[in-house]
Amino acid sequence: MLIVKVYGGIGNQMFQYSFYKYLQKNNDDVFLDISDYKVHNHHNGFELIDVFNIEVKQADMSKFKGHVSSKNSIFYRLTSKLFKRNILGYSEFMDSNGISIVRNEKILTDHYFIGFWQDVLYLQSVEEEIKEAFNFKNVAIGKQNLELISLSESVESVSVHIRKGDYANNSDLSDICDLEYYEEAMKIIDSKVSEPLYFIFSDDIEWCKQKFGKRDNLIYVDWNIAKKSYIDMLLMSKCKHNIIANSTFSWWGAWLNNNSKKIVICPKTWDRKKNENHLLLNDWIAI
């Protein structure tokens, strides 16, 4: 049995679900553990089945509590030995040996996977399946959002995601995408796109308004909050081009953008504690 722990916000959940589907390519008993949301309040909780038309196989963690809760457990020793690192310590990436093992071999013993699995390698063999899975549910999203989608289809729309909020006190993530990054990204878009219209998405719209001010080619999207915040990702995916933050939320917004001529600007560095950015795509522009 293989169990993938799900935790974090919707962007992280989407990567964990993708890894879960990746494991299912060569393994039968693969489950998601969503029990963390019973004790931790991650953003808006477990959102995948509410936002997308998908079904998941959920693990009954009451049967495995003793295995996954202790560093002395057999699960911990097995996974630590296999992946050459402490994956029960919220590790976000496996080392190259670990990736090689998961990619090339059927896993014959029980494993419990903790991590964010933010690597395009895991998407390559399940890309079409994931794109089909991550179709947003056809639910009422409100007149304002429908009007914005209509507008985005009629102009050279560019989503700009600026994440502040929970990054403010995280030295590994904060200010990687600073004002200079966004100004440079907009210059690139301006040089390649005729009359772009920028849609600004952020968890700190007031900061954005202070820095960018009022411009004829800017629209601040500030009405999708709390349980409705996922709609911002939907709106990003409907824009023709994307400027993303070092955030899985806007990464998915850009990845789900079906415009064959899209321009995506992304940060070259995702996290200061990592030497490589495993989320760079060949046709995206990293700055």
TrEMBL record:
One of its GO terms (molecular function) is galactoside 2-alpha-L-fucosyltransferase activity. Keywords: Glycosyltransferase, Transferase. One of its GO terms (cellular component) is membrane. It holds the Pfam family Glyco_transf_11. Gene3D superfamilies: 3.40.50.11350. One of its GO terms (biological process) is carbohydrate metabolic process. Coiled coil: none annotated. The keyword Phosphoprotein does not apply. PANTHER family: GALACTOSIDE 2-L-FUCOSYLTRANSFERASE, L-FUCOSYLTRANSFERASE. This is Glycosyl transferase family 11. It comes from Carnobacterium inhibens subsp. gilichinskyi.
